[in-house]
């Protein structure tokens, strides 16, 4: 890949992001132009901003990588990422906006009138934010590694530095425009090359990717392994090896491996002849098709089904609890617009997610060795050069690389803003510009450290973990908070801690590699299927047990959440209206001013 | 190799534990010294301190008034203060909080007795006539909780036998609780006073402004009837907004709309001398903020820039998005003000100055809603213009804009 083009593209993306953010397209008018004030952010602009912020490395690189590795079953990821907004649209969007809350802790406080719930919510917002930032930085590391050969941690540090600097300097002021711009950039970066790739594919005689049989090397391919790999073979495999295989050293020696397990040490150089099947790198117990994902023991479809439900629940219900998504709804002028925005988001995401699977399928045909080296996430990046080639291939590759960096930048900056905002507001008690900068540093340093220290997990998987925690903690809080009168502060705290804590514990344990393989690992790696019901159940039961603690203002709050603003605003306003009329009788409970 | 490492680890661990133990011992000894050296008073004095401490713990919740939540928090403290079997706080109608055993079968009977006590207004001690052998609540003392408007509720203390000490103690505690409740009423009436003050102040459009606007509009009636009509509509919208009665809060978008109308009217009067720049980040337009808290500041800027000087007046109004806050600045290049004078105006010592009322009012209201940390920051000097910066948090409990009023269609 031509480094100059790609690096230029990345640099341009970074610069444009910072410039649009700093200079902004702020509305700047003189009074001869009336009603500046009525120009609130429209649903389409806001939807583009939400989509731009939401489409992270997991969507841009990860989905294609998973499809390449494991076939069409992985399409549940894009389906889940999108369908999350359907749940959001139906259950949460408008009431969340009407609550007037800016962050999720704000909502907890507005609904339950309790500082304790707020503090617990803060913990989970920060936890989910950090879990979500981690794969962004890792994806950036991978991208830069492929573009320039830089060590893995460099990309993460670059993104962390750019985002921290931009956010801390107040450079993300016109964040709506930045993020909307990023959406269109990302869409272009996948859409334009996709046309060229499909043309090249058609010109090549339209070879079909097969997901039932192992992928096949189409031409003479040389693979250098970056880490130790176990190969599982069903048939004898002929190849040339330079390096250590099964404990014996070889130097450019032709070798035929028998069916069974073989271990290949890092640094080995494997040469495959055309039409050789790509060896599987994971135990799949006799079946060629790896079903679902690594944690599965291939022979047990029940677990595969379980994992699917875990994934579906996590992504469907987790979207509403992502800190950077919730914050964006505040920009909508009212609940109705928030709902419209969500609808447009659904369309925009649906269109975008048509593209990554195309790359995944083409990658399985044209870059099958990625499955061997564990860099499947790079499929999107290497395809243009591999399939189109020449200057055009380089240019398209640069476009994709720029788009990938836009993905890291937009999601990372949105998350950093959200996490830093919460840290600044609730953790660092004193206020001022300097503490906000400290908060930005805190928001970024922890996941950066994690991305350098922790082992690699496929980007889309890692994001799935963040979704699981969010679905088990904030989904019960939001759904019950909006739709059930009986929710009490103790119930909310218990549900958050039990559901979210269980998911968080399982996720951390999985990432640390603690649980043994088998069904325990499956349960821990896909916690949403049991932790979401657990969270809901705990919240409901504890709330029922503490009925006396239902917040005094529940009726008024729920009315505000569910009635259109024009009704609550124009009519009688009992909450803020005439406090003197109530009189100081024993029942006058609503007299407390803020 | 591993054996050596293990041994080294064990030694290191042992040394660490030893060090911790020594440090802990020293700390404990020092604390003991200090406790021994201090005179904690006689047992009676210590008992007094204990009582005062318990009472001080019970006070804060009661300052919220006689609510269920406050009663629940206070009842626990009050029971340990009295040392009774059970303690119950009621309002005039129902039991608010019950601390101790027996809530299941005593509550209804207690309320019947409270009803009797409410009539007399005096505390009384009665046998509970509880037939359950294992129930320790045999005697109850009912003491009234009084506020400004008579009896608000009752404090009921249960004991296992009749005791004059309990009667006396319960009556005294009830009196103390009554004082706290009266204080809470005082707090509330102070808040109400402030609200009334705000209501009086916020609708205060300067009469001069009305005369001047109407005069300016009148001057256009013959020469440019179309413009006169537009201005009249602006004037109608502006007054509708300013005189609106409901809701304490509005959105930044609404407030800016009113400011635009105000500036249009002022512009009609002063013509080209007034130049205004608006820089508004659309993200912050939905932010809720106190009703009419920016308009007086703009009015001030226009006054300083135009009426008190003869040069061209530049006014810049900017609203920026800053994470969880909106940053609003209003700047003019007018005559400015001596900071010392401004300080006196804000402290309320410099009555009468009309420009001061707006500023002081906005300052007070913002601080009341968001706390002292959010007070407006004013940068000014004589002849150096004035810049007022406000930080408005995007969310604050209890701050909800009460929606847009119905605007008539403009045609």
From TrEMBL, chain A:
Compositional bias of kind Polar residues: 278-291
Pfam name, any one: SSF
Listed Low complexity bias regions: 570-583
Keyword set, alphabetical order: Cell membrane, Membrane, Symport, Transmembrane, Transmembrane helix, Transport
Localization annotation: Cell membrane
Bilayer-crossing regions: 6-25, 45-69, 75-96, 116-133, 153-171, 183-202, 303-322, 343-362, 395-423, 435-453, 465-484, 491-512, 524-545
UniProt cross-references to InterPro entries, sorted A to Z: Na/Glc_symporter_sf, Na/solute_symporter, Sodium:Solute_Symporter
Membrane protein topology class: Multi-pass membrane protein
Main location group: membrane
Composition bias, Gly residues: 584-594
Keyword Lipid metabolism: no
Sequence segments annotated as region (Disordered): 275-294, 570-594
Family in the record: Belongs to the sodium:solute symporter (SSF) (TC 2.A.21) family.
Protein name (record): Cation acetate symporter
Organismal lineage: Bacteria, Bacillati, Actinomycetota, Actinomycetes, Kitasatosporales
TrEMBL record, chain B:
Assigned EC number: 2.7.13.3
InterPro entries: Bact_2-comp_sensor_kinase (IPR050640), HATPase_C_sf (IPR036890), HATPase_dom (IPR003594), Sig_transdc_His_kin-like_C (IPR004358), Sig_transdc_His_kin_internal (IPR010559)
Record's catalysed reaction(s): ATP + protein L-histidine = ADP + protein N-phospho-L-histidine
Molecular functions per Gene Ontology: kinase activity; oxidoreductase activity
Domain Histidine kinase/HSP90-like ATPase: 285-396
Keywords: Kinase, Oxidoreductase, Transferase, Two-component regulatory system
Name assigned to this protein: histidine kinase
Organism whose genome encodes this protein: Streptomyces flavotricini
